[in-house]
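Is this the right way to post structure tokens for a design question? Let me know if I should format differently. Anyway, here goes:
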């Protein structure tokens, strides 16, 4: 069999970088898409130096033409993608009465429109191969979180989107699942601490006290589950959302 190809959006750093690194170790050729092409290319270069096939692609996942061009490049340079991790995301946190329309639109566009455009572009390759894996990044914020009406709505939407993909694409050998991280130590988490005007280390220490396993999540914790969802062994798991939060959330 030829090598399977995976696309990871927001793959230049944080969770996306960890997921791309793990999938490369699992044997995938990996395309890292990121709005910041330099970050994507740097991560791809690190993977290539470790002996993997990888490319970094600059792309705005909310732009229809940009998505089409990015996927076409992946097909040309690596092959037809049959795994997709929709990880690209942004924060525009604010209380509802302070939130601008642009704050709302930007977050919904990147998360939901981006996941839709990427999934629509890639599904044809999966259907043709009669095998595919789509993994969408939701969040514990889908359950509601003060100052994140836009982000919470987007991440809750990702879960419904995932279930519908599972129903529509299942007959073609394609699964779709969602990962809902709790608190993960990334640059986005650091931005949240800054918004709250709390020193980052203090923010992490206090947050860890509220988590049953008494630690903050790391990008590699998310990558481990993404690895399973993209594997052959996960073929009878579809339409599910798993909270990776160090304890039960519901």
């Amino acid at each position: 069999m030829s090598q399977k190809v995976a696309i990871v959006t927001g793959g230049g750093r944080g969770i996306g970088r960890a997921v791309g690194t793990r999938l490369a170790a699992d044997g995938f050729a990996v395309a890292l898409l990121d709005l910041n092409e330099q970050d994507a290319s740097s991560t791809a270069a690190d993977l290539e130096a470790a002996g993997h096939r990888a490319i970094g692609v600059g792309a705005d996942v909310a732009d229809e033409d940009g998505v089409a061009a990015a996927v076409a490049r992946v097909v040309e340079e690596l092959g037809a993608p049959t795994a997709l991790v929709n990880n690209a995301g942004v924060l525009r946190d604010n209380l509802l009465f302070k939130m601008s329309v642009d704050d709302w639109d930007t977050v919904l566009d990147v998360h939901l429109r981006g996941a839709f455009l990427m999934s629509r572009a890639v599904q044809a390759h999966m259907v043709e191969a009669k095998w595919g894996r789509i993994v969408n990044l939701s969040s514990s914020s889908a359950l509601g979180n003060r100052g994140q009406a836009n982000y919470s709505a987007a991440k809750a939407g990702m879960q419904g989107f995932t279930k519908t993909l599972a129903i529509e694409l299942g007959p073609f050998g394609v699964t779709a699942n969602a990962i809902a991280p709790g608190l993960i130590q990334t640059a986005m988490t650091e931005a949240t601490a800054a918004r709250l005007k709390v020193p980052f280390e203090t923010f992490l220490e206090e947050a860890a006290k509220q988590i049953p396993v008494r630690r903050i999540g790391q990008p590699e914790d998310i990558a481990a589950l993404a690895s399973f969802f993209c594997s052959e062994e996960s073929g009878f798991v579809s339409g599910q959302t798993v909270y990776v939060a160090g304890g039960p959330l519901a």
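Format looks fine. Someone answered above. Worth noting: The chain has two domains: 5-182+218-244, 183-216. The domain at 5-182+218-244 is CATH 3.40.50.720 (Rossmann fold).
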